[in-house]
Amino acid sequence: MKEEGKALVFFLIYVIGSVPLNFFVKDLLEYFSIGFSLFIRFIIMFLFTILFSKKIILNKNIAVLSFFVFLSTTLWLYSLIYLSPADSLVLSYSMPLIASLIGRRILNEKSGEIYGVLVAFLGYIAYSYNLMKGFTLYGTVLSFINAFAWAYYSVLYRKLRTFDVFVLNSSVFLICSLFSLAVLPLYQPIIKAGADDNVFADVIWFATIGGAIQFLSWNRVLSIWSASKATVLSYIVPILTFIIQCFSNKESPSLLQVIGIALITIGVILTFRNELKNHSNSSLSDESISL
Hints:
Keywords: Membrane, Transmembrane, Transmembrane helix. By secondary structure, the chain is mostly helical. It has helices at 3-18, 21-28, 34-53, 60-82, 85-92, 95-106, 114-128, 134-159, 165-183, 198-224, 227-234, 236-248, 255-290. It has one domain. Helices cover 79% and strands 0% of the residues. α2 runs antiparallel to α10 (198-224), α6 (95-106) packs across α8 (134-159) and α11 runs antiparallel to α13. The chain starts with a helix and ends with a helix. The model is unreliable at 282-291 (pLDDT under 50).
């Protein structure tokens, strides 16, 4: 299979793991405390990746990366207490835009078109307008803080990209498991009454298909596609999740939500269009050389 075909397969695995994830997690949090959910996710992800890495590496950079992975995951889970699965996901996907700005400062990377970022953030303002009050306000704020933490650790991942993907991730997941274990006593009870067999499906998706497999498939996508191409296409995830939620709840989206998602999509394309164009020209050049 050609590299482009492999990337597409891994991308589809990422989408399949990501789209239903928030629905499973929202249900899981009805029965499991956030502390126990964190521990279950990270320990299973560690056990999965250590099978392939066979070793771990501990240093300051990996410890800092692990802290932000843990922080981002914690904020994501808390946001789902206050928001619907789609709302939490759409707002959290402001991450790539923030990462493009952080990457410029930390890694001296060229950031995307600034007017594209502005258009996208106008979209996020429109989408979140009706959420910025009452109970959902807390979830909205948590989602945007999560996006910053997610963006920061994504940039740190790029900084450590010379490490083997399994070794790096198994090391990160081990440290995150220890963080989770340390905070577990703060969450009582760890499992609430009324949990049924369906909770096991939630755990499996949360920790494996939507956890380790999703994480690793995204890393494989980035090893083949440019970050800009992968980023633009990844917005399929929040859009599909939003559509599924509308159908499953039998509710029509508000005008502000539709305008918001449209502006976000346009803004993302504008932000990364130069990188996409350069990647396309580079691919064409490589093809002509091979011919």
